[in-house]
UniProtKB/TrEMBL annotation:
This is Polysaccharide deacetylase family protein. InterPro entries: Glyco_hydro/deAcase_b/a-brl (IPR011330), NODB_dom (IPR002509), Polysacc_deacetylase_ArnD (IPR050248). Pfam families: Polysacc_deac_1. Residues 67-244 form the NodB homology domain. GO terms for molecular function: hydrolase activity, acting on carbon-nitrogen (but not peptide) bonds. The chain crosses the membrane at residues 5-22, 28-46. Keywords: Membrane, Transmembrane, Transmembrane helix. It comes from the Bacteria. It comes from Christiangramia sediminis. GO terms for biological process: carbohydrate metabolic process.
Length: 256
């Protein structure tokens, strides 16, 4: 609804500017400015799932009744995922794993182990392509459905949770999700562990403003994640935080 309103307002402004330009009452630059501002606005709103602009995404729940935070891991399953699972077990912690379809296919036994140990799994597309923001609706739909099909075949579950690669949600992704019906899971605590070398910086980013109902984003395909997780769980215990799966945090169904 808001997207349609923005499109309409910019379209009206563009038509008005063009009309004045052809009547030689305005120069050309206002038309160009309108186009640039519109493009930049849509780009900004598309690259952050937390804006909830094109679709509703679950990012945090400060009203959760317990002093809990949710842990989530992207881009697995990989061999390193097993280390993550062992650490979570040691601390009696539960988490969500947003899995890439081709990685599920490559490591089916690890995918099954995630489920077996009581964690929730979600859809993170089949290939996690860097071209995600430029795919057609049909291509996005195929990415989501392929991951669903592999997860159902190997895990015997029908995924309901979806996390977009890079947090990109645009009109094409919106249309694809309208067809699949997935619930979109974002985050509000992102330490950029995939691009930051310093483990201490990553841990500090997570913990410095940690609040009840926060949803933390980490990556189980990064070797440094396991030791960071070990330290994080100790800090959580010291601050009297418990962990909860995202589906419990938001009171939504993990599977269909």
């Amino acid at each position: 609804m808001i997207f349609k309103l923005i499109k309409t307002l910019f379209a009206v402004a563009a038509i008005f500017a063009i009309a004045l330009y052809y009547q030689e009452l305005w120069p050309f630059w206002p038309i160009l400015l309108i186009a640039i501002v519109y493009s930049l606005l849509i780009l900004l709103l598309s690259t952050n799932v937390q804006f909830n602009f094109f679709v509703k995404a679950y990012n945090k729940n400060p009203d959760y009744p317990q002093n809990s935070v949710a842990l989530s891991f992207d881009d697995g399953p990989v061999e390193n995922t097993l280390k993550i699972l062992d650490i979570l077990d040691e601390h009696n912690a539960k988490a969500a794993f947003f899995c890439i379809g081709r990685n599920i296919k490559k490591h089916p036994e690890i995918f099954q182990e995630i489920i077996k140990r009581g964690h929730v799994v979600g859809n993170h597309t089949y290939s996690h392509t860097r071209k995600m923001g430029f795919l057609s609706t049909e291509s996005v739909l195929k990415e989501i459905q392929q991951c669903d099909q592999i997860a159902e075949k190997i895990g015997e579950i029908k995924l309901n949770l979806f996390r977009p690669p890079f947090g990109i949600i645009n009109p094409k992704t919106k249309r694809a999700l309208q067809k699949t019906g997935h619930q979109v899971i974002g985050w509000n605590n992102r330490p950029y562990d995939a691009v930051t070398k310093s483990s201490s910086k990553i841990l500090n980013r997570i913990t410095k403003d940690l609040k009840r109902g926060d949803l933390i984003l980490l990556h189980d395909n990064m070797p440094k994640t396991a030791p960071i997780l070990e330290q994080l769980l100790v800090v959580l215990k010291q601050r009297n935080f418990s962990t909860v799966r995202p589906d419990k945090l938001f009171d939504i169904h993990a599977y269909n």
